[in-house]
């Protein structure tokens, strides 16, 4: 039987013990991996299942829109709910709501039923994302926060790489049954949440004592809830402009490229370097801090997007296409690295600025901006492209927007 987390400052743990052996770390990574596997398995496959049932391409997208809408709605409520029932209970409810309804997709492929199931799962996903992100700052010693956030990012990124194409492939080959069954996997992680039963009392204790790491220190609890929201806004805005661009790239690049194989390879490269960027940025941050690292991630993101935009018109044109294809892949790789690093570093920043006592509020703000940015990019990039800029010009606009956020990135690297 799992033991609850001890109410002692996490700073007392040394570097001699592997991070995964710290109380709660491997449990959190397992919970995260199973939860996001469920989410990513159905992200592209449920809309495809809806199309198989007769829905139009446009209306099928409402399945994802409704799910993320309920995700953002519940994320705004998590801080208040956490104070009432505790992190462990919320995490268990999130895993249950995300996983248990998934087999009900098999009751039919009509849009209203699929939307109803997705709405419930969106509530579960919102609870999972906020609580799990907050627990990252709690289970690891403060001088290893960057590495912990990197491992947390890896637990999300690997399911992203594997589950999205797997779900689409299973559905396309008429095996959606397995998607719906496998998407129930978060339920298996519910017994693991018992280890987090003491995390809320630990948060109060560790928020007021212990030495602070120079780069990822926990701010004293000098902010109220409103103050915690305020200081989390700047890093979250930086995150939003990058995830907006990423959402646009993932959604519209396959539409813009006539070569479906090139689109798949480009997105795979983007995913791989995003995974590596999110993982490695935390460990680099532990050594040098984010004052220069976060602005560098944004510069890389802007340059990568600009390269993708420049390569897009010629990426499929005969002999010249070879050069542009290389530029496309290089741009996607650079943007992916900056995209992943920005996620990691802004997550560290909101916790450092808000303080441990208001980590749940900071986590909610960060997750809301993440999901909102992705949703805006997935819809808004198409609207801008339709004005006559086309996708090439729209990606240039995105690159300029990311570059314009560099001053905010510099500010985000300072204490709130």
From TrEMBL:
A single GO molecular function term of this UniProt record: transmembrane transporter activity
Keyword flag Transmembrane helix: yes
PROSITE patterns (alphabetical): MFS
Localization annotation: Cell membrane
Swiss-Prot/TrEMBL keywords: Membrane, Transmembrane, Transmembrane helix
Topology class, membrane: Multi-pass membrane protein
Gene3D superfamilies tied to this protein: MFS general substrate transporter like domains
GO cellular component, one term: plasma membrane
Pfam families reported for this sequence: MFS_1 (PF07690)
Superkingdom in the source lineage: Bacteria
Domain Major facilitator superfamily (MFS) profile: 23-416
Transmembrane segments: 25-50, 62-81, 88-107, 113-136, 148-170, 176-196, 231-256, 262-280, 292-311, 323-342, 363-385, 391-412
Keyword Transmembrane carried by entry: yes
PANTHER family, A to Z: QUINOLENE RESISTANCE PROTEIN NORA
Descriptive protein name: MFS transporter
